[in-house]
Specification:
46% strand; three-stranded antiparallel beta sheet; alpha+beta; 167 residues; homodimer
């Protein structure tokens, strides 16, 4: 049976929620990672993915500048990196300089991959559209990579940025 | 270490992927449910969610007609309903007439809620944007509901529409 409640209560039922780390270079060439839960696949042919980024976040400038971005699926071992990249701003922090997280150059776009992620997807920016307090960036996937070792994806499993594998 | 692979191989690392059932009434007033994995929250204030629907699907017509839709989080007990709603077309099937799944009227929009779902969100269509072979519908959440019993969300946990709770 359903009962009507405030959205803030109802949305607590969303967990586990997938986590990605999106990476785009800013106008100075600094690769800026941001941790996001609001992401989805949006097309099968061609393969495309979307991310929703808060309008106030520095990643808006970086993606708008470089017109491409990486979407990495962090592994369950990367919770600390995900928390760091999600809690600092690229406006005043070089996140990859301050947190030890190995990167490798992307193959097709001007960005980087996360060496220890479960998978990395290189995206060219196809379009963007506003939605409330966020902007949705839609990317076409032009290269895909997986880890040579089998790893589990990272999820937010409960309120308060509680991160873990989903099972 | 990363190795470059085909997208179709890399995307196999996405599981578990959340499942929602989106419901919109068509021009004849028939409520049409469709099971979707491609969905995300897109705004916090106001709360908004997006769904990506294949351009060929009947739900495009229903959402475009009614300009509102429900997003239900099915429970882990609703795998059969999710499979049925995801494999039939509303063009030639009255899905709620053919599959026993209790509905209740929505409170604010002209749609229905799923009585046994973990949660239901009533959305008014704010905008839409094409993305490859899908259309992204962006909805503003105007009412939220949760189940009076504690239930687990349903996820796709592996290839071949393997549905279960995530843990």
């Amino acid at each position: 049976m359903q009962k009507q409640v405030e959205y803030s209560d109802a949305i607590k039922t969303k967990y586990p929620e997938q986590v990605v780390i999106a990476i785009a270079k800013d106008k100075n060439g600094k690769a800026n990672p941001i941790t996001l839960g609001w992401t989805m696949i949006v097309s099968g042919s061609p393969p495309m993915m979307a991310i929703a980024v808060a309008k106030t976040h520095y990643s808006i400038e970086a993606v708008t500048h470089s017109k491409c971005f990486t979407i990495a699926f962090p592994s369950s071992e990367m919770a600390e990196a995900a928390l760091f990249f999600g809690s600092k701003s690229g406006r005043d922090t070089d996140k990859f300089a301050e947190f030890d997280c190995e990167t490798v150059p992307a193959k097709t776009i001007d960005s980087v991959l996360l060496a220890d992620a479960v998978a990395n997807f290189e995206c060219t920016l196809e379009s963007q559209t506003p939605a409330g307090d966020h902007i949705i960036f839609i990317g076409k996937i032009v290269s895909s990579h997986i880890n040579t070792e089998s790893k589990k994806r990272l999820y937010t499993v409960g309120p308060g940025h509680k991160l873990d594998s989903a099972s």
